[in-house]
Every structure is written in structure tokens, then in C-alpha cells.
Amino acid sequence: MPHPSLTAEEIATQPENWRTAAALAASGPAGLPRRGERVAVVGCGTSWFMAQAYAALREAGGHGETDAFAASEFPTGRRYDRVLAITRSGTTTEVLRLLDGTGLPTTAITACVDQPVAAAAGHLVDLGFADESSVVQTRFATTVLALLRAHLEREDALPAGVGTVAAAAADAERAVGWRVPEELVALEQVSFLGAGWTNGLAQEAGLKMREAALAWTECYPAMEYRHGPISITAPGRAAWMFGELPAGLAGEVAAVGGRLVADSGAGGLDPLADLVRVQKLAVALAGHRGLNPDEPRNLTRSIVLG
């Protein structure tokens, strides 16, 4: 039998979480990157993928050169004006080691300001209102990106074609109310695709499906999909695009018998709201398979190394 899902309840709060984050960004919290700073954004797992999305948004908007790294892969010899760390728990070992040893100005965005990250980071941004009980991250991650996106909006540094957080939150309300189609639950495999800032969203979508439902997913930049990965697409499998669909891709997916999901971008859902739909699909698929999405196999809320 399907398990009651706390994850589903946390998913539903995201529109309001994003609006709260936008209000926080408007207050100008200390430690967020200033225009022109060269910034490295780091995290682990989901937080790394949000770092990728923000880095692409910030640099494309002309706010400053921005790189994203898994915390364990940070290039210690490279110079930055600021290291921005994302850690829901405030206890992730790789993030704490980096903050303790970098010697650079640091800021951490966390849901738990009473954890070791408080002593390790130069500045803290408190997103405790978006904390979660579930192991699988949903609302904290998207709320971090909403905060950083709203900060760019405040700085007049959103790339062309990227909507406001207010508009994204309105789309997220639609996504929360979306009923997952049975035919998506029945899919054997999904390839998630992105471009620019939505590459991070595609990576996160794939991770969410793997974590919550043990699903077979692949994640690629959209233009790379035709350079090999399309070989796995077939009837009963899908390609899911975040943002604008590249010319010709729809026909190529159809030609190999795959299903195309492309409902975000111009005239559709905000890509961040489209990620909410994937979260809902992950929960639905977990229930279909008799899995508990709140406590995924082999995972804990925070990775603390010895």
C-alpha cells in the first residue's frame, strides 16, 4: 500500500515559501553576492544542482562571473571574491570543511542556523521557514533558488526571458494542483533536459526521481541529447524539457517513439514550477511502487562523514 507522504505536504507549501523568500531578498540580507563579485557557489546533491542553476542565472544576467561546484570538488587554488554555500542541515561535512579552510569571504544559506555552519561561515542566511522533515529535499532547495533569483531581480540582473519570482510562484500553484497522469507513472524511463540555468533543474529532476522512486532517469543539456543519449528513448520512455524546446527536437523524439513533455518556457509554466510537477511525479511513482518517498533507500537527511 502507498505510504502517507510528508514529502507531498512539503511540496504543496512551495508557492508561499517562494513569496517569503522574495520578501527576504527585498530586505537585502547581508552576505549575498554583490554585483561584480567573482563567486563560487557550492553544495552537495540537490544543493549542488541549485548552485548550478543560480550560477548560470547570475552570470547570464551580468551580475558577475559565477561558478558552481560540488563542495568536495572545489578548486582550492582558484581565487574568488566570495564562496556561497548551500546546506539545508548545516552539518554537511564537505561544506563545513570547505568553509573552514578556504580563507575566502563566505556566506551560507541554511535551514538550521543552530548547527556547525553558523561557526564556519562568515555570513548566514536563514531559510528555516522552508526546512523539511523529509529526507528528500523539495521546498528548501527551490526556496533557495527563489531567494537568489529574487535577489538578482532586485539588482536588475535577471537574464532576458526569465520571469519574476512572483510569476513563478503563481505557476507553482498550478503545478501543486496538477494531477499526475497515469501514463507518466507508467513510463519506464525519463531523460530530463535543460539549457542554461535549467540544466541544474534537469539534474535535480533526475535526482528526485531516483531518490524517491528508484526510477531510471538520465539528465543532459538539451543540445547534447541528440549526441548519443537519444539512443535510449523508445516507446514507453520520455524526454522532459525544462524551458524552451530546441528546434527539431520534438520531431526527433517522436521519430524514435518517445513521449515528449515540454510544458515550460514561453507561454508555459516557469521552469522552476515545472520542477514541482516532477516532484509530484516522483511521489506518485513511489506510491505506485510501494515505496516511502520520505525515507528513501540508503539515504539520510544529512551526510556527516567520520
From TrEMBL:
Q: Name one GO biological process term.
A: carbohydrate derivative metabolic process
An example molecular function term from Gene Ontology annotations = carbohydrate derivative binding
Q: Which PANTHER family match?
A: GLUCOSAMINE--FRUCTOSE-6-PHOSPHATE AMINOTRANSFERASE, ISOMERIZING (PTHR10937)
Q: What is this protein called?
A: Sugar isomerase
Q: Which organism is it from?
A: Kitasatospora setae (strain ATCC 33774 / DSM 43861 / JCM 3304 / KCC A-0304 / NBRC 14216 / KM-6054)
